[in-house]
């Protein structure tokens, strides 16, 4: 595995995207554990895209305008739904009591759906991973699986760090409900913008 792959992957993971925004929002409004599970859900959401890229299924999204548009529209609707859910909150998103465990499953599921409903990811990995495979390699699938595993570990670790620092910063604003509400609505606006960006994206 090349140093170029590791450095490029790290840069890609560090760039704030939908998953990062979701994880940070959980860190600020819910807690450290919730941001951890958000990072887990977002990481799990890239597995289907990685597998699709490795085994060539991403070509379907690349060549079929209908398939791409269907996945994209569902993804856009889901981002708008998350924006609406965050905007209508009137207080902290902290999960309490008996609903705690159920809430953690929901956080993982939301993170998973955020990434799995982004068709651009499959095409990205289809173009990204082969660049670091040697032309003389006889174990292409094995190498791509290994790189995918490393990419996932990087994603999870970086997202957890983002969530941890977001939770730390929440201590400065958690005593002010008005500030919390403004930040929540700000994140809702970000999800709307991300949904619009996905809506106008092309293959």
Explain how this protein is built.
This protein is mostly helical and 203 residues long. It has one domain (19-199). It is 76% helix and 0% strand. It is built from 10 helices and no strands. The chain has helices at residues 3-14, 18-29, 32-44, 47-54, 58-63, 65-87, 100-116, 119-128, 140-170, 177-199. The chain is globular, with a radius of gyration of 18 Å. The chain starts with a helix and ends with a helix. 37% of the residues are buried.
Task: Kindly name the structural category.
Answer: mainly alpha
Number of domains: 1
- The radius of gyration is 18 Å
Report the portion of residues in β strands: under 5%
Multimeric state: single chain
Layout of secondary structure:
Blueprint: H1 3-14, H2 18-29, H3 32-44, H4 47-54, H5 58-63, H6 65-87, H7 100-116, H8 119-128, H9 140-170, H10 177-199
Descriptive terms for the model:
single chain, 203 residues, mainly alpha, globular
Provide a quick synopsis of the model.
The chain has 203 residues and is mostly helical. The protein has one domain (19-199). It has helices at residues 3-14, 18-29, 32-44, 47-54, 58-63, 65-87, 100-116, 119-128, 140-170, 177-199.
